[in-house]
Amino acid sequence: MKRGVVLYGPPAAGKDTITRYLGVLDQRYVLFPCLEAGPGRTNGTRTATPTEIEELRRRGEIVWASRRHGAAHVIDRPGLAARLAEHVPVIHLRHVEGIDAVTGAFPDARWLVAFVWCPREIAEVRVGQRGTGDTDGWDEVPIIGHADLTINTLLTDPEDAARQIDSRVTAMGQPWSGPPVP
Q1: How far, in Å, CA of 165 to CA of 182, rounded?
Q2: Sign of the C-alpha dihedral, residues 41, 127, 23, 150?
Q3: pTM score of the predicted model
């Protein structure tokens, strides 16, 4: 059975940290690196050209796309299909519409959606510590009530958050897809 995790939430809420802890719990959890064309952070992304993005669009292989900081961020069908076949991809999203796009594009997979957040003041401190300045768009990330799990990272440490997610993903049914953990 294919499984995936969507971590939805504003910048600096803890999605990257939780993803790292998921990978420590089980190597099958891997960040899905979206395609990025344009300026900005390239950590956790795959670089693409605007021409490559346009070709994916022409072929109907874009599951979700957004623009941030002058760059296109794209979840591509071939890339996500490959990750689902081998791993439990962890996708980071800031747009509610992206959740439905991703889960609807692969209805044969079981998806766990976790709303990850913290108070804005805490996020601003975290952004200052990591030096990315990416609190823009914070107010554009609405709270959602239809998540499978809600995690306030001010109250829940990332290791516990990862265990909660793993427990829910494991409960989705056996067998795990992908190679066993050594």
Answers
A1: 21
A2: negative
A3: 0.87
The tokens describing 112, both together, are 């766990």
Q: Check: CB of residue 45 under 8 Å from CB of residue 73.
A: yes
Query: What's the order of all strands across the beta sheet hosting 45-47?
Result: 45-47, 34-37, 71-76, 62-68
Q: State the Rg of the chain over Cα.
A: 16
Assess contact for 101 and 63: CB atoms under 8 A.
Answer: yes
Quick: pLDDT tens for 26-40.
Answer: 999 999 999 998 776
| Site of tokens 């395609």 | 35
SS3 8: strand
Q: Any residues with CB less than 8 A from the CB of 28 and at least 6 apart, and which? A: 87, 88, 176, 178, 179, 181
Nearest of 35, 20, 52, 46 to residue 162 by alpha carbon: 20
Which run of H or of E encompasses 117? strand 110-117
